[in-house]
Amino acid sequence: MSLEQTLNDDERLAQLDLDQLRQLVGLVEYDASGDPFPVSGWDALVWVVGNATQAAHFYQSALGMELVAYSGPETGTRDHLAYVLRSGAARFVVTGAYDPASPLADHHRRHGDGIRDIALSVPDVDRCIAHARAQGATVLEEPHDLGDEHGTVRLAAIATYGDTRHTLVDRSRYTGPYLPGFAARTSSHQPRPGRPERLFQAVDHVVGNVELGAMDRWVDFYHRVMGFTNMAEFVGEDIATDYSALMSKVVSNGNHRVKFPLNEPAMGRKKSQIDEYLEFYGGPGAQHVALATNDILATVDAMTAEGIEFLPTPDSYYEDPELRARIGTVRVPVEELQRRGVLVDRDEDGYLLQIFTRPIGDRPTVFFELIERHGSLGFGKGNFKALFEAIEREQARRGNF
Ligand SMILES: [Fe+2]
């Protein structure tokens, strides 16, 4: 599969070219002919929230997304509301119960706000499901067509960790705003004058937290069922602080468009941040979404102006001579990074800038990362220790450490 073919319609619509995308999310060339489960990219992150109407406002005001579609009782959906938001190639769908008997109300009671569905764009839904079934995956929805006056979408869904699923979507014969049952919808919300047009361009990776001892099982699931390969491996010492630890492995699809780091807690002197997540989410789930931006300073400034809170980074991080030597020259003065708490990591391929928000909901569970890649295909391994110490300070303030 050439890189040209790996751009999906949403990416083309977002006017992202290949060079931008290669840089933004670290795309690589690969040969799809032997891929048993070809994935072309992300389709949508589908959230279940306590109040979809207000969450849709949050994603517009605080994350700079654009409202593009809606479904609810007015469009014939009787039990829940769904708002579809875009930023570049990224699509979020926020859903909430309308009817108290909706299964989404129960999902929200168990998990709080979170990601229920990491939907992926695939060129051949039936081929993927046949392979997944042969490999023992749980098929939640058999392949089927949904149609309306805009065409036909082919869909199916498989289960992954916890109550999370992967819906597989082929929308190559569909021109509507999202899916049949949704109507185009815009909003009167206006961004602040001077704000960048978009605060992020694409989803880079989605991290899953799983139970102690389950990480290798899920790595194996992504290998066997979905043909993903290992990208990088972080184990033990790399990401242990004095108090808590975790293990992490990263799998990705062939062109690296879709990357899934998987974490499990490791034994430490105190409760791991992964344990805190598992306790409050009520089991495994998506821990953070990394949003790719080509100007992390402007994005942090715009989000901060809207009230988004980022994890603080101690001044000692920037004053550490070892770190200064390791990161070398980056595109902005270190003082600009320090002022905002932006972290830097460098590997053999280049460097990346990154920063993490506090949890965005009421529970200490899901949060966002902003990432600006300059050649590096990593995940900020060199920052894990500094970052986790910052997370632990927050955990201690909540009395969960
Ligand atoms: Fe990350």
TrEMBL record:
Gene3D superfamilies: 2,3-Dihydroxybiphenyl 1,2-Dioxygenase, domain 1. Fe cation binds at residues 205, 288, 369. PROSITE patterns: VOC (PS51819). Binds 1 Fe cation per subunit. It is found in: Cytoplasm; Endoplasmic reticulum membrane; Golgi apparatus membrane. It is a peripheral membrane protein. InterPro entries: 4OHPhenylPyrv_dOase, 4OHPhenylPyrv_dOase_C, 4OHPhenylPyrv_dOase_N, Glyas_Bleomycin-R_OHBP_Dase, Glyas_Fos-R_dOase_dom, VOC_core. NCBIfam families: 4HPPD. Its cofactor is Fe cation. Homodimer. One of its GO terms (molecular function) is identical protein binding. Belongs to the 4HPPD family. Pfam families: Glyoxalase. It comes from Geodermatophilus siccatus. This is 4-hydroxyphenylpyruvate dioxygenase. Its main location: cytoplasm. The lineage of its organism: Bacteria, Bacillati, Actinomycetota, Actinomycetes, Geodermatophilales.
